[in-house]
From TrEMBL, chains A, B:
GO CC field: cytosol
PROSITE patterns given in the database record: ABM (PS51725)
Name of the protein described by the UniProt record: Quinol monooxygenase YgiN
InterPro entries xrefs: ABM_dom, AI-2_Isomerase_LsrG, Dimeric_a/b-barrel
Keywords attached to this entry: Monooxygenase, Oxidoreductase
Lineage: superkingdom: Bacteria
The UniProt record lists the keyword Oxidoreductase: yes
GO molecular function terms listed in the Swiss-Prot or TrEMBL record: monooxygenase activity
Record-annotated ABM domain positions: 2-91
PANTHER family membership: ABM DOMAIN-CONTAINING PROTEIN, QUINOL MONOOXYGENASE YGIN-RELATED
Length: 96, 96
């Protein structure tokens, strides 16, 4: 299982513009056959800090997600409002 | 709902020492009545970068977690192996 945390840092004045884009990205991504979880959160201390918490069965599913129509169309529109580069962390569960 | 990402940065030479402490912390925290999720991951690119993905019903549940016997005993033992301070992000879901 592949867990992903993707942290976006948006200009605060752009939040109203990016929220509909984020919502479409979440809705369409959750329809991908191999998406296990794709949830979006906002940092309580920074309204421009958006955090995706994702779960994929494997790296191939994540790579396929990054090639979808919705990803390749929406992510550049979202990233136009970045104030700093996103941070993407790919992780594996700690064995119990 | 309160989502938490807690990122620990451990010295790589300490990983074998902290893993049993982390495992006990996860096991005991999951037994807390108000813990909704408490999962631990390792960054694929940095074996000393441990990431908790947590879910609590509210801030009071998180505060109670931080006062438990297992938290107050184990976290200082874990933090003795830190190479840099942890980063804790408290978040709320983006409304659909």
């Amino acid at each position: 299982m592949l867990k992903v945390i993707a942290q976006d840092f948006m200009r605060v004045e752009s939040i109203d513009l990016v929220l509909p884009l984020y919502r479409e990205l979440v809705e369409k991504t959750r329809q991908e056959a191999r998406c296990l979880a794709y949830d979006l959160f906002i940092d309580q201390k920074d309204p421009g800090h958006f955090v995706f918490v994702e779960e994929w069965p494997d790296r191939a599913a994540l790579d396929a997600h990054c090639r979808t129509e919705h990803f390749t169309r929406l992510v550049p529109l979202i990233n136009a409002h970045q104030r700093q580069p996103c941070i993407i962390t790919l992780m594996e569960p700690v064995a119990a």
